[in-house]
Amino acid sequence: MIPEPFFQRTVHRVCRSVPESSRMNRATAKHLIERYFRQLTDGCGNGDCTNEFCASCRDFRPLDNNAAAAKALELFKINAKLCNPHPSKKDFLDGMMSEADICPAKEDFSDVNHLTEDTVSTILGFCEERGDYSALIRIVGRIFSNSDALIKSFRKDEPIATENLDSSEPTDVDEQEKQGSESMAASSAALDEGLDEMMDPCEVTVDIGAVRRVYDRLLSLDQVEAALVNALIYLTPNMELDLEYLDVYETNPDYLNIFVIVLENSNLHSPEYLEVALPQFCKAMSKLPVAALARLSKLWSGYGLGHIRRMMETFQQLITFTVVSNEYDGETLVNDDGTVVAATQCLKVAFYASILGGDVDVEHNEEEEEDPESDELTLHELLGEERLYKKGPPADPLEQELGVRPVDSIRPLIPYEDFVNESLNEVVEMDKDFTFFKVNAETKFSFQSCPFILSVITKNQGLYYDNRIRMYSERRLTALYSMVQGQQPNPYLKLKVRRDHIIDDALVRLEMISMENPSDLKKQLFVEFEGEQGVDEGGVSKEFFQLVLEEIFNPDIGMFSYDDDTKLFWFNSSSLENEAQYTLVGLVLGLAIYNNCILDVHFPMVVYRKLMGKKGNYLDLSDSHPVHLYQSLKKLLEHVGNVEDDMMLTFQISHTDLFGNPILYDLKEQGDQIPITEGNRQEFVVTYADYMLNRSVERQFRAFKKGFLMVTKESPLKYLFRPEEVELLICGSRKLDFEALEKTTEYDGGYSKDSQIIRDFWETIHSFGEEQKRLFLQFTTGTDRAPVGGLGKLKMIIAKNGSDTDRLPTSHTCFNALLLPEYACKDKLRERLLKAITYAKGFGML
């Protein structure tokens, strides 16, 4: 069928640039453009056609609807050759038009050009009386296949009973039309007078309640369901063309009504829609301008959990259905699947609606320090590589339009995990997706532009590629500099430290690098312990990180305070250490992420929220100071008696210093003179939380964040990951699944999974307690945490290291390799293994 509404708008757009002599001229132009479009898509039907602009020509290269529409405009402007339809083709087209259910030539209720709830009720009553729903089916098909008709349907400002649809009373029709015209004129005048008091921009003119009631009645009829599917199939190509070429939303913002009405259909996820109708609809929706998508997201956010979840599940089902129905490989990428891409972009609207509809804090943001702009060209720019190493991805346009970020969300309506599509994560090629994300963002779609749909494991792969490419880049630049300057190249970030002076050595070296050449921090880390022969292939770095953290978090140093109840550390506001020490801690965390190492750090979640740009607030105290402070403030807020008399509190608070001495602090000027009352208790709680989490540790945290950003500022970390995911990247998972580790372990040197020693080994490991299992993991891999994705992602190797002997097992933590002698019995294996994991420390050459 010909996308009629598209050509109506096309003619209007073309004719605006020439004098409008008559209505006949516009009709002629419309007809010609239609003929060009048919000629480009269907052809003339003549198998021997020689017109290069006709689909029937043998040399013609097929065009999709979008390209054909644009070409039809060009051909119209240059008055290109038009073929006369071949007789067989003409007969076929005429038959299609005459037999189409969607636009019958003659029908009951032919004067209905849009729908209202009353109209539908009248038609339904008419059909129920006769036991024949053909009239309803034709009208639903006609209205739902026409964008202009849908825009006018179910309006909030629709006058009551504008039309009487009983054809047996023509006098009433005339009277009602007159009343309707007067009512519409009055409504229009009222709107003109009230322009300064308009509704919220996210509001639409659709009566949502009426639409839902109508759908409840229509979807109970199978025949009407089929008409809705067919109408949507006919409507959506026209909408896609309208939005892409004619900017219809800018001309008429009520164009959004179409999407609002269609998406209220609760059956969109059913198989009838999934194959053709819904994919086409999503492609049209993805063409909406950002302002329209933001209106839609705000609108949905007010509808509540049930509605947003239905939208989310509809788009998720389409993505899953499409992915499992197709095969993707290195040549055929899921990034090129228009249906999956469009549905993902639509899912983004539901994602932000879930955030807006939940608890959000768009305030309380940490101040971001902006680097001064430099006019000097960097070496990356001179080499033409600036796109690969630009500072980071721009903010998401929809995010900017809505003025909300995922990190602003305290609690979304729908858990983040529900937006992750596992089927998609299994087929996305992250190396290629990363290239699209960093280099070809204007021409290729990257799923990293919609990170909510990706799992932490998948996003971590993208971060890994980003980090490795930066390391490779710094290595190249070092080689180039050394060639120019005639110096020995130094492609690594080398740290040579003494075990008993590890903090001093690391601090001096890293501080020197950060001042002289901070780009060296982007090189691959290479650690050497003085007097030890271990070569750093990853394991020595892990040991370095562990020792540094053990030293820094030692309570005797006093940089951090430890909470026995939560087992978490917090910045000590009374610490005597200088800021360089805190900068070192931030550097260590950044280097760990950059070098893909897991650290044994224990911070509350508010630390990661602050690193991502949010200040701490009262709710964060439930994690950082839950037992005493949070519970006390919560009781204060919930107290039902006389707050001033019962609590006897003021705006002066007390806390202890490094030596346990009490310190008094006024939250407000002369705070000791301001009692806490029912009227100001909320202010007291907010101010108290701000002091504890922000102001009291501002010096320490600023230095800590500075060190962290020295390594990660140009990384997509902040764009891709939420605070809880950043914690997982740094700390790994505390959950240890040794069953998964056993399934993925590989064997070498003559061992296999069926070897007796291997069976004894796994029986021994599974019999260990939690602490012994962590010691084994530390001994074999250099950390007692599981990586992102669990122990199944570890790829441990167990290799044979000789026959029965008294030697202990050894390990290569760089490669997660355990060298295990073939002990004579299970008891000896257990005894030797326990001794190795309990007492072994340090590196040596075997």
UniProtKB/TrEMBL annotation:
Gene3D superfamilies: Hect, E3 ligase catalytic domain, Hect, E3 ligase catalytic domains, Ubiquitin-protein ligase E3A, N-terminal zinc-binding domain (AZUL). The keyword Transferase applies. Residues 517-846 form the HECT domain. It is an enzyme of class 2 (transferase). GO terms for molecular function: ubiquitin protein ligase activity; zinc ion binding. Its main location: cytoplasm. The active site is at residue 814. It is found in: Cytoplasm; Nucleus. This is Ubiquitin-protein ligase E3A. It comes from Cyclopterus lumpus.
